[in-house]
Each structure stands twice: as C-alpha cells, then as structure tokens.
Write a structure and sequence with these properties.
Blueprint: H1 3-12, E1 54-58, H2 63-74, E2 78-83, H3 87-99, E3 104-108, H4 114-128, E4 133-136, H5 152-173, E5 182-186, H6 199-219, E6 225-231, H7 238-242, H8 245-249, H9 267-274, E7 285-288
Parallel strand pairs: 1-2, 1-4, 2-3, 4-5, 5-6, 6-7
C-alpha cells in the first residue's frame, strides 16, 4: 500500500463530521457520547519506555487524560488519576490501567483548591513512594456569545481550574521529583488562535503556554523537563457538554484533515515527552492540531 493510500485509509477509519446532535450537562460523560471516543483501548501497544515510573494525570478520568493513562500504563508506569467527580469514567480508566498490569490510584476532588492539590501529591507519595511524571491536563471551559454573559465567578473558576491548579501541583510535585522527571501541561491551539466564544478558556491556555516555558527555565538545572502539548479540536466529553449543538455537529471540520482528533492520537506525544527519548526537549509546545496552524 502506498503512503498516500495508507493515510487515506487511516482517515476513513476515524469518525468524520457531521456528528449526531447531542448535548450533555457539564462536565460530560464518555458513555453518552456518539460516536464514542477512541482512547487507544484496542490499538496502543507499549514498549517499556516508562517502566516502573509513577505518573499523576489530572483529568485522567476521560478524554485526553484517559488516553494518556492507558498509554503510560502500557509503557510500564503506575498511574494516579486525579479528577473532579466523574466516578464512573474514572473507574473505567482505572480498569484499563489494571488490565495493563499496573497499579492505579484514583483521587476525586477539586484541584482548584490549593489544599486538595497538595493532598493529591501526598496521596501519590503515600501509595507509590515517588512521582516521576506530572501531567497537568484537567480543564474547565464554557462557551459565551457575549462578554457580558461571563460572570466574575465563571472567570475565576476557569482560571482556578486551568492554571491555579497547575501551579499548585507543579510547585508541590517539584519538591519530590528527581532528575529525569517530567512535567507535561495540556495547552491548546486556543493559546495562540483563541476562539472568541471561549474567551476565558483560551486566555488560560495562553497562560499555560507561558507558564510551561517559564517553569522549564526555572527547573532545568535540576534535571527536570517541562513541556506542553497543544491539541486542536479533540473529541472528548468537554465538547458536547460545553458547546452549542451546531458546533458539536461539525466539530473539527475546519481542520485540513476535515475532522476532530481522537484522544488516542495525542497519547504518543505525551509518552514521548515523558520518556528519556525527550532528554533534550524542554520548554517546547508540541502542536497536535490536525493541520491548523498555531499563529
């Protein structure tokens, strides 16, 4: 098969818009999505690149976080999953980790509260005795047609969930991380190409990109790497629970690939950044956008 034919076949096997019209209450459930997202359950094959590492993944219950948890576990890591209150999704992710033969810890709670974030790190250390990888992936977003519709409470919630939690967790985890450890933050194409209807979310994603580069410089001398992944439109529960039905129906159609990405398509990048294969990579923002340029 030619490379062109192989690419076309891969595209045909991924869900294409239009998607069925659907709407969920926030923060959304994987089981209620149509089509179901692909987290690599049946496709990701590990090769021991994270053998016996310990990874904390926030927002690890579903979406990108679930795909990363499955991939990390199949690469040999034990996994801690921090999430808000999506117990069913978190339980399912934990089962995939256990099927990979790795240990798993699930920790519910609000990471926007500093004390809880500190407690999460403590629980990881109590269970596993170490922390080698921190994936700051948890996020809150909501769509608004007018700035007058964005309350101060909503603005504060978005910043506390998306950037404050990242600061709290990174600060605490760095006390225990050894040389060779890695922090990986989830940024977004919105960090440089903001969607007007996602003003608060997009603003935090710009802050995350800046935080990533700045923190990488602060901790480089300690042998710890800090990078970020900047996804484009990815099919996760965040989409039908935070966007109007019309946008959900055509989600991802505006990319050169003509579709939304699946969480499984991001996981290999997180694995690369977590592994020693990225030993000379820090302060990088890895763009996984389906071909949409980051300005």
């Amino acid at each position: 098969m030619s490379q062109t034919s192989e690419r076309q076949t891969n595209q045909e096997h991924r869900p294409q818009p239009p998607f069925p019209k659907q709407r969920q209450p926030m923060p959304g459930k994987t089981a209620d999505m149509s089509p179901k997202p692909d987290h690599g359950e049946d496709s990701y094959e590990g090769s021991g690149r994270l053998k016996d590492k310990v990874a904390l993944i926030t927002g690890g219950d579903s979406g990108i976080g679930r795909a990363v948890a499955i991939a990390f576990a199949r690469e040999g890591a034990d996994i801690a999953i921090a999430y808000l209150n999506e117990d069913d999704d978190a339980r399912e992710t934990a089962e995939w980790v256990e099927k990979a033969g790795r240990k798993v810890l699930t920790i519910p709670g609000d990471l926007s509260e500093e004390q809880h974030a500190v407690e999460v790190i403590k629980k990881v250390l109590d269970r596993f005795g170490r922390i080698d990888i921190l994936v700051n992936n948890a996020a809150h977003q909501a769509s608004f047609a007018d700035i007058d519709d964005i309350s101060a409470e909503e603005w504060d919630k978005t910043f506390r969930t998306n950037i404050y939690s990242m600061f709290y967790l990174s600060k605490e985890a760095l006390r225990y991380m050894k040389p060779g450890s890695a922090i990986i933050n989830t940024a977004s194409i919105n960090s440089t190409d903001p969607s007007p209807s996602l003003l608060a979310y997009a603003t935090t994603k710009g802050a995350i990109a800046n935080f990533t580069v700045g923190l990488s410089g602060l901790v480089a001398a300690n042998g710890i790497r800090v990078n970020a992944v900047a996804p484009g439109p990815i099919w996760t529960p965040l989409i039908p629970s935070t966007m109007p039905e019309g946008k959900v129906e055509n989600f991802g159609k505006n990319t050169p690939l003509g579709r939304a990405g699946q969480p499984a398509e991001l996981a290999p990048t997180y694995v690369l950044l977590a592994s020693s294969q990225s030993s000379y990579t820090t302060g990088a923002i890895m763009e996984i956008t389906g071909g949409r340029p980051m300005l």
